[in-house]
C-alpha cells in the first residue's frame, strides 16, 4: 500500500522560553492511501496537535510531514492553501457552520471561495446531499437542524471537493450516542466508497472500532 502521509521525527512544544511543554516528542508515522486511522489517548497526549500539524494549521518545532511525497514545510503559502482547500477535508467537534447560510450553501462554501461556478457542481451537490441524508433539508438553516444533521452538513462540506484526506477532531464529541453512531457509519461509508483516507481523533472506543487501525499516544509519543 502506498503511503499518503509520512511523518518523521515530529516534535512540537508550547509555552515561553524556559517554561515549554513538550506535546509531541519524536513522533514518526506512516498512513497508507485509503486507511481509516483513529488517534486515541488521554487529554493532552498530543492527538489534536498532531492532526492540526498534518493539516498545515500549525507548524512543528522540528521533523517532517510528507503528503503524497511532498514536504508541506517547504510549500509556499499558496501551495499549502491549495492543498488544504482541495486535498484535505476538516471536521471538528463543533460544527462550524455559517448560521445565515442554508445547508446547501454551507456545503458549497469551499467551491464558492475557490471561485467555482455553482451550476457546474449541481450534480455533485445533489449526490453529496443524498449520501449524507440531507436532501430534504437543503434549504434549512443550521438552527433548524439537530446536532447530528449539522455534523452531517459539516462532513458534506468537508468532502464536496472529494479530498484525498479527511481529518476529524472528536467528530462525535458533541452528539448523543444515536447521532454519533450515524456519523461513524457515514465516515465508514465515505471511506469505503470514496477511498478517502481518514484520520480521526477520538476518546471513544466505540467510534475507534469503525477504523482499520488505532494509534495510541501518551505524553507525546506513540505507544501502539
Automatic annotation (TrEMBL):
Recorded GO CC terms: membrane protein complex
InterPro entries linked: AAA+_ATPase, ABC_transporter-like_ATP-bd, MacB-like_ATP-bd, P-loop_NTPase
Domain of life: Bacteria
Keywords: ATP-binding, Nucleotide-binding, Transport
Cross-referenced Pfam families: ABC_tran
CDD domains reported in the protein's UniProt record: ABC_MJ0796_LolCDE_FtsE
GO molecular function: ATP binding; ATP hydrolysis activity; transmembrane transporter activity
PROSITE patterns: ABC_TRANSPORTER_2
Chain ranges of the ABC transporter domain: 5-223
Family membership noted in the UniProt record: Belongs to the ABC transporter superfamily.
The protein, known as: Putative ABC transport system ATP-binding protein
